[in-house]
Structure formats: structure tokens, C-alpha cells
Amino acid sequence: DENITDIAYHEPQSRSITGEYIVENGDTLWKICRKYGGAFNPEDVQKANGLHSDKIRPGQKLRIPSFSQS
I need a surface site. Which of 33, 34, 48, 69 has the fewest CB within 10 A? Predict the structure, then answer.
């Protein structure tokens, strides 16, 4: 059986950038995350792009984060 002590030793995931996304009319950070299968959340996109809010506009280029094992 796995217990809490065992879980603490699992390798953490690290953030990396996978590519770029051009915001389309009607997009939100949540919609963009869903287009990528929910591999990251809106806060990850905000951090990867230095955004201070969830406001985005059509034509804006966003870096898309992913998670990979360290």
C-alpha cells in the first residue's frame, strides 16, 4: 500500500513551454486549455506569458505551457 510518506518521494513535474498559440475571436484562457486537452490550467498560461489578468485579445500570441518529468 502506498502511504503519504511514499508520495512525498515522487518526482515533481516541471513546467516547460511547448509552443505558441494565436488567440482567436471568442477564446478564453479556459477554452485554450481545453483545446490542449486540459494539460494545464489558465493560471499556468498567465504565468508563462507574464499576464496579470485573464484578459486576452484576438491576434495575441501566447506561449503554451506543458508539463514534463524532471
Answer: 69
